[in-house]
Design a protein that fits this description.
Two copies of one chain form a homodimer. By secondary structure, chain A is an alpha+beta fold. Chain A has two domains: 81 residues, Glutaredoxin, CATH 3.40.30; 125 residues, Glutathione S-transferase Yfyf (Class Pi), Chain A, domain 2 (Up-down Bundle), CATH 1.20.1050. Chain A has a four-stranded mixed β-sheet with strand order 2-1-3-4. Chains A, B: Pfam families: GST_C, GST_N_3.
Chain lengths: 230, 230
């Protein structure tokens, strides 16, 4: 049996979950609190990041991008057309560039602010670092999200999927971030039709279903969150 | 002919330079200012990041980690033992975890502060965003650098190289960051003997020579910067 230590609203965790599901990997999920230092998890990975994947051969792999590269290398061969990484090095570089952009820049400029202020802070108990949401962080996220949606629309309008003709890791890295932002009702869908059409296509995949069932107590999802035709 | 658009004190650029040199790739270097928006470069990569590698087949690859993965995939096969990526997926995941740690976390917590405040701001002209160095940023870098050096020492004391038995991309990602910090005299070498011994080994490689010749006008290197036996 393999395991994924994750948090349901950590975008990097969602990225790993999507790829695991696309690959039909049976995984036991262990929920963690990203804001609590957990000695057992730190022993597995000193960066203290989520998600952490423990393969059934006991290999420990930490971090959304590292896990997904590992999955492609170890399980991808049997996946044929939905391997999620193209064959040619230049195309793979484009996938990695976009994964870094979404998991790094979009995450740092938008998702991380919103999830910290609107979800993690609400779930923190006394003594776990609980403070009130910071309106400046939420404002920054709202100012930044628009150009990211437009960039997704720019790519989606010119290509079949974000990195090119094929569905790749880049689509899931982006969709994982967007899904968290969308739960919170913070995606300006009116900003870009092509981005919206792309997201509707990713969201309709069976791998997305479990994400759409995640709920945070006290923070209901935006009304259209589970709607495949939003 | 292939090209690398870079800045001599961008750590990600240095990371790509080291790997290109280890691979004996003939490259033409084009110096850029990371703080100036350059329309031609933005057309090549909308993230506007350095370095950018243009392969002799005109493939454009942006970003230190993406470039080095591309080099391993396209030129690594002929490198034999100094391929810089191990054969097994679990070992490759460890390399990628460390590259992300050094190019992401060490960079964000230390190198980026120091290079921005002490080098880029000095090189900026009026109208390019020039302001005085921010002492708070420099203090943050100095507070953070120590545990990074200790982590490098921890790895180096337990393994032959940072990611394991073999020299890998992880050593060059780390050394590229350290080399910039060291130029500025901000590495607390007394904090960890094993880290120092590891850096002396990387620094002695021929691929390091060109880095040791880089100089910023007005910011002389720390006295031991070029010393292989510091």
């Amino acid at each position: 049996m393999s395991f994924l230590h994750h948090h349901p609203f950590s975008a990097a965790s969602r990225y790993a979950r999507l790829v695991l599901s696309e690959y039909d990997e049976a995984v036991e999920f262990v929920e963690e609190k990203p804001w609590v230092r957990n000695a057992a998890l730190l022993a597995l990975n000193p960066a203290g990041i989520l998600p952490i994947f423990i393969d059934d051969n006991e290999t420990v792999v930490a971090g959304g991008s590292v896990i997904t590269e590992y999955l492609v290398e170890t399980k991808g061969a049997r996946m044929g057309e939905v391997r999620l990484m193209p064959e040619h090095a230049a195309d793979r570089a484009e996938v990695r560039r976009l994964v870094e952009w979404f998991a790094g820049k979009l995450h740092g400029e938008v998702t991380n602010y919103l999830v910290t202020e609107k979800i993690y802070k609400r779930q923190m108990k006394q003594g776990e670092g609980h403070t009130s949401p910071d309106p400046a962080a939420i404002r920054a996220a709202r100012a930044n999200v628009r150009y990211h949606i437009q960039y997704i629309g720019y790519l989606a309008a010119r290509r079949n999927w974000l990195a090119g003709r094929e569905l790749t890791l880049a689509d899931f890295a982006a969709a994982a971030e967007i899904s968290v932002i969308d739960y919170l009702g913070e995606v300006p869908w009116d900003a870009d039709e092509a981005a919206k059409a792309w997201y509707a296509r990713v969201k309709s995949r069976p791998s997305f279903r479990s994400l759409l069932n995640d709920v945070v107590r006290g923070v209901p999802p935006a009304p259209h969150y589970v709607d495949l035709d939003f």
